[in-house]
Amino acid sequence: MLVTVAVMFLVLSVAARAMIVNSFEAHEVDYATETLNRTMYIMWLEIDAMDMMVKDWSAWDDAYYFIDNRNTEFIDSNLGDSTFSNIRLNLMLFISSDGSLAFGKAYDSNLDAAMPESESFIASVMNHSILFDIPDRDGGVAGIVSTPRGALMVSSRPIQNSEKTLPLNGFLVMGRLLDDEIESHISEVAHVETCFHSLNTSLPADVEYAISVMDARNETELIHTPDDDIIAGYAIVYDIDGLPAMVLAVYMQRTIYNQGMALLNLFLVFLLAVMAIMGAVTLIILECSIVQRITDMNTQVNSICADPERSARLDVRGNDEISSLAANINAMLDIREKSETVQAELNRALESRLAELERYKKATVDRELKLVELKERVRHLEQNGGVPR
Question: Which of 156, 176, 356, 358 is most buried, with most CB under 10 Å away?
């Protein structure tokens, strides 16, 4: 009984784990994928917001004529460090129509000053010629580019006068690094820990593993559990030239999985309690309906065996196998009683015959003895001459 209950509990536990935990794991993966995509969407909203600002600045008379006159008043009034800090920019480029740099500035928000080694930083952006290949007046390019300082959100639009009537006059490029500040901002908006990992920098072990798995599967997204407490989502982000630029990673607590495990444990406790109660009830039912009745039957059988006459019979109650067994035993006892009665009658008849034979034998023996005695007397008389021949 205990072995049966243990096997049933083990089978139900495995089945429950397969159904409950696997279901919660699938739901957890779906939620992580949704969170990853939502975070990616928020990042693109940031790029779109910067693109709208570039659109406003590029259709501005002062910017249009600055390309030609390069006046310092425009620089002092509009391109100072305070402007970069207020609109949260790290890069602003004014490109002439021939592709030459009319003005460029890289700003370091941590230093609140011009970015050290800004020439290489600016050059890394200028290498993307797609930023300056926008023939349409209302066109533009926005996305991600790789730089020595990490991934950069960029937007480029043609410079034109406010009325959009004069020929295009170069391009305006703005950029913002995906640094700790933007990571914190996106994490707060998306309600999830977010990290941006540029592919031209050293990467954490979990990100390298994610990249290797995505490469092997030829996929751009991966949901992975680095440990029992964290589930992470990784997505490769491509630059404006269609090349891998960085990995977006989001990290979440395994709340859904832990809820599933808690539910599984609660179910197993409930299942164990139910099986224990069912086992106890089954034992009671067996005791009352089978064991006790068999014990009573055994007592009655022993009593019948001890009775020389064996006239008693088992009690027959109910209409089940045990009552059928009792009826069969009673029938067997009836047949045995009849057999004993017949046997007794046969024994009495046999004893009568034996007694009769014994009397016949005795009479025959007596007669033989008398004949022997008579012959002896005749012989004696003959020897003594008392009887003539």
Answer: 156
